[in-house]
Specification:
single chain, Rossmann fold, 2 domains, 7-stranded parallel β-sheet, 6-stranded parallel β-sheet, 15 helices, 13 strands
């Protein structure tokens, strides 16, 4: 018998994470109750947090409705599966490190989740936690097993209250029947535990099927990046490359979450803003070189970025700084050490015609295959 899932993840319908990719497929043959993020840091009285609080309040006001994925998440994470039977935006207290807040959340969230489980017909589920804050409800839902899906190094992740979150993670990992990790670096953090290494997958059909060139992509040679424009990108290295290659356009797609003033003054640099996930193939296929311009830090050393396999599936040449998850694919990428000469790597990548080999390198790594491995591991619990 296939066990149902109660999943504590980020907000469903946001830009699809690996959890959404996998759960969207696991939901084909099991019921899934998805519980939106509880939060991994104390809120601050700034514009960004106030907007997030307002979004959360709107979601809470409409909680209990069936899942309706946003367009940004619809194509890849959910097109091949029904998605969750229900999405719950719980009323919770986002205060990591507070014993009182955790006790209150155990009561508040537990009551809301149990009610949603009853209405959805879910009993004795596998509890899936992608966020350490879910530790507050472990043992309160009648779950048959606990899975911790560890996709990030929460001790290095930006925007997290590191100390309290790591303490919650340690308690969660100690209780977990299975820990799923996306990289060797994350696996090493849980010695002696039941650990499954499950690297990220890719929707090869989505990224390799030819689509028209976007109208807002500048003409001429383009080096492009999509994803969160955050403090793990090497901004000085990017600025140096853009200045050294004035005949190229440098295009960035995604939300800006770091200081980009150095790049904004360079005339051949363009920030297009966020785009839905299902239109990203059009950009990746039609710019001339895809960029992964990471710094070297603990977060990057533990990461396994989704864009790496998506870029490869598109067939477009790639210029990247070296990081551990890149090692199996270095033969298909123009690589430099962190902080190196990105302009040189871009020129090297642009002259590499091996599009078919790049696509072939990830042809067996689709999300369906990853979900099948995970489903077999869940069946053993």
């Amino acid at each position: 018998m296939t066990a149902d899932l109660v999943v504590f993840g980020e907000d469903w319908g946001s830009h699809p994470s690996s959890t959404q990719h996998l759960v969207g497929r696991l939901a084909r043959d099991r019921r899934v109750l998805w519980v939106n993020s509880i939060g991994l840091r104390r809120p601050k009285l700034n514009a960004q947090d106030l907007r997030r609080i307002a979004t959360k309040l709107r979601a809470m006001a409409g909680r209990g409705r069936a899942a309706a994925p946003a367009p940004a998440a619809r194509r890849d994470a959910h097109a091949d599966g029904p998605g969750p039977a229900r999405v719950l935006a719980p009323f919770a207290i986002p205060w990591p490190g507070s014993t009182l807040a955790e006790a209150a959340n155990r009561l508040l969230i537990g009551r809301q989740v149990r009610a949603a489980m009853a209405e959805t017909g879910i009993s004795r589920p596998i509890l899936w936690a992608s966020l350490p804050s879910a530790v507050s409800v472990v043992g309160a839902l009648g779950e048959r097993a606990l899975v911790y899906y560890c996709g990030d190094d929460f001790g290095a992740l930006t925007g997290v209250d590191h100390g309290p979150v790591l303490e919650m993670e340690a308690r969660l990992a100690a209780k977990a029947d299975l820990i799923v990790v996306v990289s060797e670096a994350l696996a090493a953090r849980f010695p002696g535990r039941n650990v499954l290494l499950l690297p990220h997958g890719v929707d090869g059909a989505l990224f390799s099927t030819p689509v028209p060139r976007p109208l807002d992509l500048p003409p001429g040679p383009v080096a492009g990046f999509y994803g969160s424009i955050s403090d793990w990108l090497d901004i000085p290295m990017l600025a140096a490359a853009a200045r050294a290659m004035p005949d190229w356009s440098f295009v960035f797609i995604g939300p800006v979450r770091t200081d980009i003033s150095t790049l904004e003054t360079i005339p051949n640099v363009h920030f297009l803003g966020p785009r839905p996930h299902d239109v990203l193939p059009a950009y990746a296929q039609h710019w001339d070189v895809s960029l992964i311009p990471f710094l070297d830090n603990p977060q990057i050393r533990a990461c396994n970025p989704l864009k790496l396999r998506e870029y490869l599936a598109s067939g477009t040449p790639i210029a990247a700084t070296r990081f551990p998850a890149l090692v199996p694919y270095e033969a298909h990428v123009a690589c430099i050490d962190p902080g190196g000469d990105l302009a040189m790597a871009i020129r090297e990548a642009a002259s590499d015609p091996r599009a078919a080999e790049r696509r072939a390198s990830v042809s067996t790594e689709d999300w369906d295959a990853r979900a099948a491995v995970l489903s077999a591991a869940l069946a053993k619990l």
